Amino acid sequence: MPRVEFHNVSKSYPGGIRAVIDLGLTVEDGELLCVLGPSGCGKSSTLRMLAGLESITSGDLVLDGARINDLPAQARDMAMVFENYALYPHLRVFDNIAMPLVARRVQRGEIQKRVHEVAETLHITDHLMKRPRHLSGGERQRVALGRAIVRTPKMFLMDEPLGHLEAYLRVELRAEIRRLHERLGATTFYITHDQEEAAAVSDRIAVMHQGRIQQIGSLLDLLDRPANRFVAEFIGSLPINLLAATANEGDGSLQVGPMMLPLSPAQATRLRAARSHTGLTFGIRPEDVALADQEHAAALPGRVAVLEPQGDNTVVIADTPVGRVSAVIPSRSVPAQGERIRLHLALDHAHIFAADGSNLLSGVDRKG
Amino acid sequence: MAVVESAERTSSTAVSLRSLAPYLADCLVVGFGLFPLYMMITTSLKTDHEAFAWPPVWVFTPTFHSYLGALFGFGGRRADHYVFNSLLITLASSALAVSLGAMAAYGLARFRFRGNRDIAFYILSTRFAPPVAFIVPIYLMVQRSGLLDNALALVIVYTSMNLSLVTWVLRGFFLDIPIEIEEAALIDSLGDLFMERVPVRLDTGTRLCSHDTRLSRRLLGIDEYRLGGVYGSGHLGGAADHDLHPGFAAPSGAGPHLRRGQVRRCHVSNSTM
Predict the structure, then answer these.
(1) Which ipTM value was assigned to this complex?
(2) Cβ-based contacts of B186 with chain A (< 8 Å)
(3) Which pLDDT tens digit goes with each residue over B37-46?
């Protein structure tokens, strides 16, 4: 029942840099929790504190109900996979995988058996007698994974394990990691800056920014109900459109450029309660912007500035009175460059952010 | 017919001459480079008289007189005595410098503390001045501590002089080893002993390099024969029969410690070097 809890954990480095601030996070037993964030967001520091490679400035780190702040790394019974593999270059693949067992004085026959099992699982049996430098990046990371799973540690720590790999290998290996996780059911703490990878391997995603967890949930949660402007900007394959907006107190509508967007009474009440009528930001993903039909009353006029063909769809970037807005349009019906168009915004997927970045509303058109 | 043939022959000779030219040039360069070596070897096989003859004697009967003298008549003792001293001193000081230097280098490479880089640079800076510049002050120190004519003095001096270089070189090796490998070892519970072994054993390359350092250390140790000459010399130290200057370096070691009989030979090797 390995379960990890961070209670108000902070990490400061000499020089006053606060890498992690007041972190509260729980990794449930058997869960693969992925911490997702841009570089420098504090995710690595969090992982290293969990591994015991970095001291904890304040707060409590609890594993299985016991505080392990001061437990040295070798006593924490965790296995870690590093971004740059960190294989022992002077040892053959077999010995690399066997090393954690050797360190625990496991019997030789047992070591043989377990290393071969692991090699079989990861399809590296042919490489057992080679040295790491003769392997490709993907093979090396498989060996590193093998070194981690050869014994049954309390939990796995993965520090951007696919960061150094080529795109097709990343896709292949993240499926492998997910498969391993479903088979072993081990508690895993995984960090990455790649949201697709996070979505592919994890049970839950925690988005981290500037030393704080911004939001925890599935990728869909993060897309549909971003906790704040940062999450909305960071998540999503295309950058979200963010437009300045103001709330009309009188009729409870939202003004985005020339458009008056109607709000339900409940939504208007919520905006009013937030006491922020100005400095609002209206966010909508390019996927939720389409070309307007005649029947769409509230449409945003614009002129096509840039076309980015992406195969079936084309990203159309248009200059509008409220700034540049991008839209994903089926390639067959793409307007020509310079053409005047009207854009329809699917309001049930739009978000309104307050001046401080917090999310006031998700789904402007939804009643309630 | 005959005319044409001879014309062809001359042109083919010209062609082969042209293709030979680079080789001839190479031969000249190689000959120029090897000439000093040739002189050294032939001089070692000449008698004293022939060695100093002017113009040089090109044809002579080789004699191994000098070799016998160096090996068996050297300063009244056999050369193996000196070779053994050299070996002992360089091995001892190498072992000391590498083990102390490795620890310092590991600390400098791995731990972050105030002035880390300054300390590393300071350590290197101790090599800026040639060791010869310190002969006299160190001589006085050795004399005051009563270590003159004692192998220990040389071990201490060599160690202290080379520690900086060893530290600097090993620091580079440790920096080259990704820290993640040490962290992996830590998390794999390989224990503190392994932790220390990982960086040192890491790969054959590094292992070779650490041998390299030791080798260059030994070379440096031998190269500083002057110090050996000064601190170990019976003449300066007063005990005439206990020369400790490292064996092979002595003949070319210009210096105050040489006996009168050796001055000439010393001069020879200096001029050929």
Answers:
(1) 0.77
(2) 52-53, 73-74
(3) 999 999 999 9
